[in-house]
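Project standup — Tuesday

K.O.: blocked on the structure for the chain from last sprint. Re-posting the sequence here as requested.
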Amino acid sequence: EITMEGAASGKLRINRDIKVFSVDNSQEAVYYLDSQGINAIAFKDDYSMGFLAVLQITDKKEYGNMASNAPLYYIADRENMYSDELEKVLFPFVK
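H.V.: unblocked you, prediction finished:
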């Protein structure tokens, strides 16, 4: 997290076209993606993981193919971060 914040704030400070990518879904990473400090982030979808786990256990009594029900990892950039699919994952408390 410290490295991501340092790279993102450094990019914003020097105002040059440097590509910065992160593997993170923290609010700080989403902030830097939105403010163009980071070009893209790869992150896991914790919300869907938890929902699918509970669904599988309570409804289907299965533990096997949870990942086939929904994508559990995403790559977001400035072009798609506000899409319907990613907005609920990146901004879970907004809606």
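K.O.: great, moving the ticket to review. The two ends are 26 Å apart (CA to CA). The chain is about 45% helix and 15% strand.
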